[in-house]
Amino acid sequence: MTVGVDMDSILIRELEVYAGHGVYAEETLRGQMFLVSAELIMDLRTAGLSDDLDCSADYGRVCHFIHDYLRQNTFLLIEAAAEHLAREILVSFPQIMELELEIKKPHAPVGLPFACVSVKIRRGWKQVFLGIGSNMGDKERYLEDAVDRLKAHPLIRDVKCSEWMVTAPYGGVMQDDFLNGAVGLKTLLFPDELLAFLHELEQKAGRERKIHWGPRTLDLDILLYQDYVSDDPELTVPHPDMGNRRFVLEPLSKLCPNLVHPVTGKTIRHMLQDLLR
Predict the structure, then answer these.
(1) How many angstroms separate the Cα of 176 from the Cα of each of 119, 139, 141, 204?
(2) Residue 235 burial by CB count (10 A; 0-12/13-18/19+): exposed, middle or buried?
(3) What pTM value is reported for the model?
(4) Per the residue annotation, which of 104, 105, 126, 186 is the catalytic one?
(5) pLDDT in tens, 91-119
(6) Rounded-to-integer distance, Cα 154 and Cα 255, Å
(7) How many CA within 13 A on the CB side of residue 258?
(8) 20 to 30 Å CA-CA from 8: which of 133, 136, 216, 260?
(9) CA-to-CA distance for 9 and 81, rounded, in angstroms?
C-alpha cells in the first residue's frame, strides 16, 4: 500500500446469516438471524482499469465466506464473532488492506422494544518496522532464524529485510560488535501482541536480560508501528532513541527512506542526515 494514496472500498450491506451465537443456550441451539455489513478497503484502480477480477476481491466469495464462517463457528458474544471474522477475512483475502465490519443482532433477548443491537469494528494490516541485532554466537543464524519465524506467523506478511551491517556496541558496555539490520512487515497483531511475540522469539534464541545494553543472542525492537504513538514504559513507540542510532537509521533508510516519523515529522533519510552531520 502506498502512503498518501486514498483507498477505495467495496460495500456489503446486511448480508443475512442464520447462525447460533449468544450467551444463552437457547440462542446457540435454535439460532437467529444476523445481519452482516462490511466495507472492504483496498486499491481498486488496477481492477477498474484492467477489468480483471483477480485484481480485486470477489465480493461473492467474501459473502459466502462470511456466511459459512458464522454458520460453522459459535461465539457467546457478537464482539468475539466480529473480531474473529474480521481477522479471517483479512488473512483469506490478501487484496483487502482494511475492513469495517458490523454484525447486527435484530432479535437479541433484550426484553424491551428496540430496532437492533450491533457491534462495529475496524481492523487492518499495519505497516511495522523493527530493529534486529545480535552480538553473540552465530549472529547471522540468529537473525535469519528470527526472520524465518516472522515470515511463518499467520498474522504477519510481506516481510522485507535490509542488508546486515556490522556495528560497534551502543551504550558503553564492553562487548563484541553487533550484526544489525532493519525489518519491514505488515501485521494484524496489535502492538502489545507483536511485542509479546518478539519477546518469545528472543527467549527461543536464548536471550538473557542480565545487563542493560549488554550482549545478546537476539535483540528485536519495534521502531515504528504505522502512525501509532505511545509513551507507555512497557512499549514506547516510535522507539525513543532511534534518532540517535546510526545502526537503526542506516538500514531503515534502505527500506523506507521517505517514511515520515509520526512525532518529528522528518523522513527517515533526513533523520539519518541529521545524525551524520
Answers:
(1) 53, 11, 16, 21
(2) middle
(3) 0.90
(4) 105
(5) 999 999 999 999 999 999 999 999 999 99
(6) 23
(7) 3
(8) 260
(9) 22
